[in-house]
Amino acid sequence: MKTNHISLTFTSISENVALTRLIIASVGAQLDLPLNDIEELKVAVSEAVSNAIIHGYSNSPDYIVFLDLDFEDGTLKIEVRDEGCGIANIEQAMQPAYSTDPERMGLGFVFMQSFMDELQVESTPEVGTTVTMMKHFKQIPISSH
C-alpha cells in the first residue's frame, strides 16, 4: 500500500476554505473513495479550517492556517492547526450548538465527530489549536490517476 503526505500553509481568509475542500476531494478521489465518504471528508475539513479562521483568528486575514494530510495503511490523518487565541474550554466548545459567534450554528465539532472515526482537539489559550481527525478505510490500492 502506498503512503502519501501533503502539507500546506495558507492565509486565514475564508476563500481558502473552498480550496481545502477541493484538496481533500482530490485526495479522496485518488484513494477511489465513494462519493459519500468524500463529501464527509470535505465537510469535516472545511469545518476545522473555518474554526481556525473564524474563532482562532477572529476572521483576521493576517495569519496562517496549517493543514497536514497523511495517508498510510488505510488511515487518513488530517491535522488542522492555527496559532490563534486558543480554546479555553474544549469540552464546552465541543457541545452541540455551542459557539462564541452568535452567527454560527455551533455544529462544526459535531460534524467532525460524526464524519470521522477519531477526533482530537488540543488547544492552549493564546498559543493555538490543533484539530486531528482520523478516518479508517478498507485497504484500497491507490490508483495511478
What is the CA-CA span between the terminal residues? 15 Å
Under CATH, the topology can be stated as Heat Shock Protein 90
Range of strand content:
25-35%
CATH architecture: 2-Layer Sandwich
Number of strands: 5
Helix content: 25-40%
CATH homologous superfamily?
Histidine kinase-like ATPase, C-terminal domain
List the helices and strands in order: EHHEEHHEE
Q: Helix tally?
A: 4
* Oligomeric form: single chain
Average predicted local confidence, pLDDT: 89
Question: What general form does the structure show?
Answer: globular
Highest-level CATH class? Alpha Beta
State Rg.
15 Å
Q: Strands of the largest sheet, in order across it?
A: 1-2-3-5-4
Top keywords for this entry?
145 residues, Heat Shock Protein 90, 5-stranded antiparallel beta sheet, 28% strand
Task: Write a structural description.
It is built from 4 helices and 5 strands, in the order βααββααββ. A hairpin with a 3-residue loop joins strand 4 and strand 5 (128-136). The radius of gyration is 15 Å and the shape is globular. The chain is of the alpha+beta class. It starts with a strand and ends in a 9-residue tail after the last strand. The chain has a 5-stranded antiparallel beta sheet, covered by helices on one side. The protein has a single domain (4-136), classed as Heat Shock Protein 90 (2-Layer Sandwich).
